[in-house]
Amino acid sequence: MTDQLEHQVHEFLAHLAVERNLSPRTVEAYARDLRQFSAWLAAEGLAFERLEKAAIRGYLGARRDGGLSARSAARALSALRAFFRFLLATQALAQDPTADLASPSLWRTVPHALAGEEIEALLAAPDTATPLGLRDRAMLETLYATGLRVSELVGLTRDRLRLDPGYLRVVGKGRKERVVPLGDSAVDWLERYLEGARAELDRRQRAEVFLNHRGGRLTRQGFWKILRGHAVAAGIASAISPHIVRHSFATHLVENGADLRAVQMMLGHSSLTTTEIYTHVARERLRRLYDEKHPRA
């Protein structure tokens, strides 16, 4: 930190403590964020007096790449904004490089996806010698094969299944219908379930494909409990939810070269921008693989 910048930071922290009456803990948090920013400037060889928005974006991007959460990055930007506004008010700076910057709290969080071996363990967890176990295996296979939302899965009706060509029709958000392919494994387990276990469960002639143990419609909460139980049995230590299995479906498709627009259609995203997050997932996994396997990484 240059002598001039150190003096300006000292004046700013005094302003926070005396004039704004902030707590010592809050003042120290501001000081820590500004020290980190100053260290980054020095490492990048950037002059504080001539900073532009691109430099602030570069700093926040570097912090994010280093593992900083969106919430912590938003706090760091808040500290910089307060500091630059103070410098403008005291005429120590002519322009604010943080003006009009979007908050990092708006950054999308890169979704967690299960590894391939975790998916295999999860799918193999149900006891398929029982009607409920066979139902659960068919549900899990369908969820991973299609990336359906949990509400779409439990609301799926028999008339929307086409097992011979291998696809299903689903009505998603905004009452929009889409067609999603079914892989051979999902088709096989669905056939086994529909021909055997479902007939034992269906006491009310329900339209839904997946029924609870009383023969009624399976609820979203009921499926969450079933999923968590099988995740524990499979030895999956990471967090689990239907949404994570949906993320895993999309991530594994993109990692294996699937077209992003095809993934968008299967997920039922209205905008391709929403689907593009999976390219970030694939890049991050590629980086981790490189770091783990390359002898010069």
Detailed description of the structure:
It is a single chain. By secondary structure, the protein is mainly alpha-helical. Helix content is 59%, strand content 4%. It is built from 13 helices and three strands, in the order αααααααβββαααααα. The chain has a three-stranded antiparallel β-sheet with strand order 1-2-3. It folds into two domains: 3-106, DNA polymerase, domain 1 (Orthogonal Bundle), CATH 1.10.150.130; 116-293, hpI Integrase, Chain A (Orthogonal Bundle). The chain has helices at 3-19, 24-44, 53-65, 70-89, 116-124, 131-146, 150-154, 184-201, 220-233, 242-255, 260-267, 272-275, 277-293, and strands at residues 161-162, 167-171, 177-181. The longest helix is centred in the first third of the chain and has 21 residues, at 24-44. The mean pLDDT is 85. The chain is elongated. Strand 2 (167-171) and strand 3 form a beta hairpin.
Question: Brief description of this entry?
Answer:
This protein has 297 residues and is mainly α.
